[in-house]
Amino acid sequence: RYTQPQENKRPPVALLYWVVGRQLRHEKEMFVCFHESIPQSAIEMAFRVGFGT
């Protein structure tokens, strides 16, 4: 495991994200993981592309 020298270390960054799932009928489900800053329209587009609608 590589560790940076102490003088070059940066504090750890916390990433905030969401995981949302949807089910289309009983045989198909999909989960999208996205950063909290992503607009709602992009999330909806990901589901449309994933479900082929």
UniProtKB/TrEMBL annotation:
Any one GO CC term of the record: cilium
One record GO biological process: cilium assembly
Transmembrane segments: none
PANTHER family: PROTEIN INTURNED (PTHR21082)
Name of the protein: Uncharacterized protein
Organism taxonomic ancestry: Eukaryota, Metazoa, Spiralia, Lophotrochozoa, Mollusca
